[in-house]
């Protein structure tokens, strides 16, 4: 005769194993989402930097208020004359 654990113990063991497997899958899915979001963040950051360069080409060295679009010239050390 085969030795077996009790039915209740087997059920608990199976349930715990299922919860652990599901949790591992969820962690994996979150890591994939994290990777996708980090990639998207990098692309957006590159796009922002490119647009800042375009704005600088049009308006020069300025500080732009992102709320209302107003801007002020930025005083650079390289622009000062001795």
SSE map:
Layout: H1 7-59, E1 62-64, E2 71-73
Antiparallel strand pairs: 1-2
Judged by helices, strands and strand pairing, the structural class is mainly alpha
Helix content: 55-70%
How far from one another are the termini?
Answer: 99 Å
Strand order of the largest sheet: 1-2
> What is the number of strand segments?
2
Radius of gyration: 29 Å
Helices and strands, in order, run as HEE
The low-confidence parts are none
Shape: rod-shaped
Oligomeric description of these chains = single chain
Number of helical elements: 1
Approximately how much beta-strand content do the residues carry? 5-15%
Q: How would a textbook summarize the main sheet?
A: 2 strands, antiparallel
The average pLDDT is 94
How would you describe this protein?
With 82 residues, the chain is mainly alpha-helical. Helices cover 65% and strands 7% of the residues. The chain has one helix and two strands, in the order αββ. The longest helix is centred in the middle third of the chain and has 53 residues, at 7-59. It is rod-shaped, with a radius of gyration of 29 Å. The relative contact order is 0.06.
Characteristics:
82 residues, mainly alpha, two-stranded antiparallel sheet, 1 helix, 7% strand, rod-shaped
Q: Could you provide a short overview of the structure?
A:
This protein is mainly alpha-helical and 82 residues long.
């Amino acid at each position: 005769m085969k030795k077996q654990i009790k039915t209740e113990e087997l059920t608990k063991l199976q349930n715990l194993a299922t919860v652990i497997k599901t949790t591992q899958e969820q962690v994996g899915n979150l890591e994939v989402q994290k990777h996708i979001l980090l990639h998207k963040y990098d692309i957006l950051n590159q796009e922002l930097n490119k647009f800042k360069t375009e704005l600088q080409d049009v308006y020069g060295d300025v500080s732009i208020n992102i709320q209302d679009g107003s801007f002020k010239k930025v005083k650079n050390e390289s622009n000062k004359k001795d």
